[in-house]
Amino acid sequence: MVVLNKIYTRTGDKGDTALGNGARVAKHDVRVEAYGTSDELNCFVGVARLHATDETDEALSRIQNDLFDLGADLCRPDMEKDAESEYPPLRMIGTQVDRLEAEIDVMNGVLEPLRSFILPGGTELAAHLHVCRTVARRAERLATELATQETVNDAAVRYLNRLSDWFFVAARVANNGGKDDVLWVPGANR
Asked: Could you give a GO molecular-function term held by this entry (predicted)?
């Protein structure tokens, strides 16, 4: 159980922060950027939930919880030392990715195939889900950048990749099953 009695600690006043293993790094470190962006994404998901129906709200609630798991995973380097830890760190697992894929398949099953790229927009929920999609892509880019420098849990990267797909398909569902998608018209304003 987490207990937060005091919110400010002053330990980061000089521009560094603690990772999950206690190591201190710059607040602009790519690892901090990656898990910070997953936290930002979680906030946007919270805004999207304000416009969601019950079923979509339940799915977004699960995603918010997963995003906290993802942050816990990304803030903890040294995966190779996980087995030695007194308390094994929380890591994303394949079943979380599998769940997203199954949900995408169900949602996509009721949609007509796309014949054009779509522009972000349509309903309020769809517009918010498109914002979530792009922030998920940014988090994925940061996680893959981190993976070029340090070991990163493969399931975490796969989750982010699938999550942006989930938001795309969910936005189409939110747009009256794709009927209210805003289609891109190449060169329309030339």
From this structure: ATP binding
**54-65, pLDDT tens digit by residue?**
999 999 999 999
Second-level CATH architecture of 25-183: Up-down Bundle (1.20)
pTM of the model: 0.92
In Å, what is the CA distance from 94 to each residue of 72, 77, 114, 163?
16, 19, 28, 13
Of 13, 31, 41, the residue nearest 138 (C-alpha): 41
DSSP string, 26-76: ETTSHHHHHHHHHHHHHHHHHHHHTT--HHHHHHHHHHHHHHHHHHHHHT-
**Cα of 122 vs its chain's centroid, Å:** 22
